[in-house]
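Entry:
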Amino acid sequence: MAESKNLIVEQIKKQIEGFKSDISEENVGYVNQVGDGIARIAGLSEVMFSEMVKIETADGESEVFGVALNLEEYSVGVVVLGDDSKIKEGDRVTKTNRILEVPVGEELIGRVVDPLGNPLDDKGEISTKKRYPMEKSAPGVIERQSVNVPLQTGIKAIDSMIPVGRGQRELIIGDRQLGKSAIAIDTIINQKGQNIKCIYVAIGQKESKIAGVVAKLKEEGAMEYTTVVVAGAGDPTSLIYISPYSGCAMAEYFLDQGEDALVVYDDLTKHAVAYREISLLLRRPPGREAYPGDVFYLHSRLLERSCNLSKEYGGGSITALPIIETQAGDVSAYIPTNVISITDGQIYLDSQAFYKGNRPAIDAGNSVSRVGSAAQMKIMKKVAGKMRLEAAQYRELAAFTQFGSDIDEETRKKLDRGERVMEVLKQEQYAPLDVAKQVIIFYALTNGYLDDLEIQDMKEFEKELCENIENNSEIMEEIRKEGDLTEEIEKKIKKIIEECPKPKKHNKE
C-alpha cells in the first residue's frame, strides 16, 4: 500500500515538474447582427480590410467564412461567403490572418467551379498545389510592354476592323440579347490550338444559360483549355461580387508561367449591381445612381491586372473581354462610361443592325480598338484596310438616302460597295473563321472579285471559296507563317479565287 502511494506521489511530482503554462492570445469577436448576407461583428479589433474571418456556428458542426469589408469604430462589417441562415447572434468569430484566396493551376482546366474554387461539375474534388489571393496589385508600368501580338477572335468584323491583341482589354457593349456573350464564346472557341488558356466568368447569369454555354464549349472541344467560374443568379451576392477577381487570379497563374490567358467577364453590369447591394447593406453612402463612391475603383483594379508583360518579366499576357449591358443604347450611363474609360477600346453592338439581320451586329462607326493595327497581321491590314471606312460611310449614307429617291452615281457606288462589305461581314453564331480564310475572302472583296455577284449570291460563293481554301490548305499555313502579302502569296490567293465557280450577276430590266 505504502509503495503504491509513493508511486502515485512520484508520478504527480513528475507531472508538476513537466507542466508548462502556454498562454495564447487570440483576437476574437462575436456576431451582433446578421441578415441579407451581411454580419456585424463586435470586437475583432485587429482584423484587416479584405481579411477572411471564420464564423463558428452555434451548432458547432459547421464553419462559415466571410470577408471584412467595413472597419468601423465599434464593429466590423463582414460579407458572408455562403449561407447566412446558419449564423446566429452571439456566434464566435476569429481571424484567419490571410486575405481571400482561390486555388489555381492546370488542375482547374476543363472544370466548372464556383468563385471559391469548389467544383460544380461531376468530376470529383480539385486538388491544386497553389493558391493565389483574389485581390492583387496590377503589374507596374516598367513590367509591361506594348500590345503587338494579335488575338484572333475568328469574327470577321472584329479581326478586320477592331483588332484585339494579347494583353488588351476590349469592352463588348450593347443592349441585352444582341449577341455580346456569343462574341466572347466564339472567341474562346477560336483559341483552339492557339496555346491560350481561357477563363469564362459567369456573373449573376441564369443557370440555364450557363449550362448552355458549358455544353457548347464541350461540343466544340473548347473545355480542353477553358475554366468556367460560375456565380449564378441564385447565388449569394457575396459570391457574385468576388467572382471576377477569382477568375482573374486563376488567369494570373498562367501569366506567371509566361503563358497567355483570356478572361471573359460576363457581365460587369451585374457585378456593379451586386457591389451596390453589398455597399448599401453595409451602410456606405450612396452616390450617382445609388452606386458607392468607389465603384470606378471596383472595375479599374480588376481590369488593370490584364497586361502584356515584357520578356524580362516572363512575357505572359492576360487579355480581358469585359461585357457591359446598356439600357436602350445609352452608353453615357454611369457604369458604361466608367468601363469605357478603363478599357483599350470597345466593340459596340447596335440594335438596329441586329434587327436588319446584320449579325454580329457590330457598329463599325462607334466601335474602336485603341491598340489599332499594332495587333494585326500585316496581310490583314493590306487586304482589309479600307473596309472600316466603307462600312462607316455606308451606315451614314444609308441613313441619309432612305427618304430620298434622287441619288447621284457616286453615292450609288458607295452604297453598293457598302452593301457588299456588310454582307461579307455577316457570320453565323458559333462559327469562328480561321484568319487565313478571312484574308482570302477580304482580298476577293477589296479587289473586285465579288462586284459581278448579286448580294444574295455572296454567301454561297463565300461557302464555296472556303471549301476551295481547305482543299489548298498549304496557303493557309503560308499566310499564318509569313503574315504579309508577298507576291508569291498574292498569286496563290488570286488562283484560288479565280478557280472558285460563282454565279453571274443577273441582268436588271
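Residues 55 and 93 are 4 Å apart (CA to CA).
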